[in-house]
Amino acid sequence: MGPKSGRSPRDEASVHGGIDDEERELLKAYSVWQVLGQDLGYSLAGVDDGVARPLSFLLPFDRLIDACVVDKEMGTDGDTPSGSACWLSAFWAISCHMLHNIHPGLIVWLGSSRLRPLKGLMVALLPPFKCSYGFGGRLPPPCRMSFFHIDVFDDLLLQNLPSPVRTSYLVSLNILLLCIERREDPYRFFDWKVTYGDIYPLGIRQQVILINGQFPGPEIQSQTNDNIIINVYNGLTEPFLITWNGVQLRGNSWQDGVYGTNCGIPPNKNYTYVMRFKDQIGSFFYFPSLGFQKAAGGYGGISILSRPGVPVPFLAPVKEYTLLIGDWYKTAIHSILKEKIDNGMELPFPDAILINGRSSSNGASFTVDQGKTYRLRISNVGLMTSLNIQIQGHQMKLVEVEGTHTIQNYYPSLDVHVGQSMSVLVTADQSSKDYYIAVSTRFTSTTLTTTAILHYSNSEQKASGPIPTGPTEQFDWSMNQARTIRTNLSASGPRPNPQGSYHYGSIPVNRTIQLANSAALVGGKQRYAVNSVSFVEADTPLKLADYFKIDGVFRLGSIDDHPTGAAVHLDTAVMAADFRAFAEVVFQNDEPTVQSWHLDGYNFWVVGMNKGEWSPASRNDYNLNDAVSRCTAQVYPNSWTAVYVALDNVGMWNVRSQWWERRYLGQQFYLRVYSPAESRRDEYPMPDNALLCGRAAKELISTAKHSSGSINISIF
């Protein structure tokens, strides 16, 4: 819409002494911007693509517009500061009103100190809309979790806004920062001090990694969309990182806590993880990711509950317990295991199984009341061994696997492969006594078993009878059980809509990736590989190198989509992937041991598994209706497992073997999911407190000195 008779809207306002219908329509069209974004938050038109868009909502403008008309008719010239102030105040008040209706916790932050003369009028107009506001300076604290930059382009203001708004006040507004929080999801703050400490789980002294003096570490209890702030102080003598197994960190691989994305926290330093459990529920765990520190503990459970009002497909249990199960070695310090592996030796068979850091001799105990139902969140936090769990005399009802509500089948025992998590309901429906909780190794020539106690509160009889023993070498039994674990399509997930409303089976696959694991000697030492590439760490985290465009750290395409049959070689393997692609990934295991594969940042649908070699004909047996969605999948010996994954999470994500020796010796790579828009709607900016190391630190020290943020630089 252009000016009449070649005049600008400003000229027309001067000639006619007021606003006309055309200018009224202009004000309606351009006084607010269109809210963009769906699941990842809200943004207004601006820097994401440099295009300003008119608002498409119908709003009650007239009352505020008329207020300014009355102001002019009472003698205020529309081009005087007071008239401009009235229009500009109406401009922001209308915007605030609209946004408040959409997003109740609105905070409007005006980034220009020149707008301070309008503060009085803003105070008068904004309270009815319950909007917070501020003028100049840094972004207010509530906005630090999610904010969006908006450029207010001078040409837009000069060409499309009526003259009362097009004043020096408005033209001087170059950047507007809006922080929009939906009822401000809760913040949960944690302070963790990581230290070495001595424990005696197997009757001998061992040095382990403690968090706040605890082994296992503190449990993170939260609910969907919580903001999690964890300040980690590293009291060890070596760098340290924590990764969050199964937490998707939407658009925020900056917080993934693996060396491909983060520099290690130096000794006697701290780093604060800032993350959001966006659109997730379920059972997960955290653990140290650098070197072989996982063998020394430092792990703990993560439970994410549904938000109030979101239906859960079972009655609330009386209480929840977390069971962290895993293989364990009795070496005095974890560096002994690392040294053996570095010298080309294989990891020996474990010495024991621990349940919450305890062996059978000082076993864990879980108290229940007769007749009541309890939820057990179970995670295999070990290094290499698949485990089986059962409770003497009790059935377990499986209800959730890594954030997916499952069909509620009963099982006398369940296989939990390394890196996997699940939760079951157990009803104390037996006679009042104590019962064994037995965890035993699977697919091993020697079977290790550890017990804990299910203690009835009114029990006067200790657990007795034979300790339950699980299956050992029955791969078929385990595979058949895995196929029965399926998604409950009618149950809600993190949101109220049913999990089955996302029809993954009807989405066209636009990429197939086949990944084959293998073992070989390279330079006389044991290595493990994916598609013939054995991963080696670069001198700079890949995420930093990608962000700062540092050449020579990694090469996209350094790992093929399919097995090549070539000899195993060393490389920093990174696979490129397009944002919003829908991929089929086939894990092929031609070795005689069970593999366990994990993808950071994602869940995937386990659509099929079977013996032998995968072929396109294998798709005929895929489950395209109710396959379970999870983040870690097992691949049986001489077998394959196929998954579907929607690549909707931008970032640098670790694809790894959960068998830690194999991961440490190369069975991993990184998947770079990239959006050419490079939009804040898709990915968080680099955090202000990012640790810089390697070439990132060396090349950016001068940049950091001039940064307005607080960038910590560590070189090691």
Search tags:
alpha+beta, Immunoglobulin-like, 716 residues, 7-stranded mixed sheet, 5 domains, 6-stranded mixed sheet, globular
Strand-helix topology:
Layout: H1 9-16, H2 21-30, E1 35-36, E2 43-44, H3 62-73, H4 81-102, E3 107-110, H5 119-125, E4 132-135, E5 148-151, H6 154-160, H7 168-171, E6 175-179, E7 187-199, E8 206-211, E9 220-223, E10 227-234, E11 242-245, E12 270-276, E13 282-288, E14 300-305, E15 319-328, H8 334-342, E16 352-355, E17 365-368, E18 373-380, E19 387-391, E20 396-401, E21 404-405, E22 410-411, E23 413-416, E24 421-427, E25 434-441, E26 449-456, H9 475-484, E27 511-522, E28 525-530, E29 533-535, H10 542-547, E30 555-556, E31 569-571, E32 573-578, E33 581-589, E34 595-599, E35 604-611, E36 629-630, E37 632-635, E38 639-647, E39 651-657, H11 660-664, E40 668-674, E41 691-692, H12 694-705, E42 712-713
Parallel strand pairs: 3-4, 7-10, 9-14, 15-18, 17-26, 27-33, 29-31, 30-32, 32-40, 41-42
Antiparallel strand pairs: 1-2, 3-6, 5-6, 7-8, 10-12, 11-13, 13-14, 15-16, 18-24, 19-23, 19-25, 20-21, 20-22, 20-24, 25-26, 27-28, 33-38, 34-37, 34-39, 35-36, 35-38, 39-40
Helix pairs in contact: 3-4
Describe this structure in words.
The longest helix is centred in the first third of the chain and has 22 residues, at about 80-100. Mean pLDDT is about 80; it is low at about 1-185 and about 710. It is globular, with a radius of gyration of 29 Å. About 45% of the residues are buried. By secondary structure, the protein is of the alpha+beta class. Strands 15, 16, 18, 20, 21, 22 and 24 form a 7-stranded mixed beta sheet that branches. Strands 28-27-33-38-35-36 form a 6-stranded mixed beta sheet, with no helix packed on it. Strands 30-32-40-39-34-37 form a 6-stranded mixed beta sheet. It has 5 domains: about 5-180, no CATH class; about 185-305, Sandwich (Immunoglobulin-like); about 310-490, Cupredoxins -  blue copper proteins (Immunoglobulin-like, Sandwich); about 505-685, Immunoglobulin-like (Sandwich), CATH 2.60.40.420; about 685-715, no CATH class. A hairpin with a 6-residue loop joins strand 7 and strand 8 (about 205-210).
